[in-house]
Specification:
alpha+beta, 172 residues, globular, six-stranded antiparallel beta sheet
Amino acid sequence: MKVKALLTVPLLLGVLAGCGDNDVDQDEVVTNPTPTNETTTNNADDTTTENANQTNEENAGQQQEVTSYNFEHFDLDVEYANDVSYNAEYTNTQNNITAEFEDEANKVDVSGDEAYNQISPYLGQLTFDETTEDQEVLNQVMTAFGLEDNYTEFELEVKFLNGEKKEYKFNK
């Protein structure tokens, strides 16, 4: 009986080790903001646990980046001549992030992770808060997003982290 048990354990360990997937797909890390809680009951396979911890740390870093903005909602609509528009929208409510991005001049219309990835560098440049002068908000947004100043209408709605909502409107 002991001989069977001694032969069965290494065989099972070999099968379990062969089934493990120690590669972390980078696309999964970016598109899945929910941390994985992979654990292993076998101390011989610590790589799976290390990968799970790495994924959790990367997701925690991603959440920190997301919450570093001064606002939880940002809705930008800029109109140009010939009905060409530029729209960027970002919302973060209870760590549920949505984003949309449309740039008609460059034929871009995306949503979700792709939109967030496109606009997050711009959002990260914005430092204004609810006390910033309207003209300074306009200047920061125009500069961060690289927008032309020949717009016909500029509208921005922002909900700051303290809950205050502000609208900024400029017409030429």
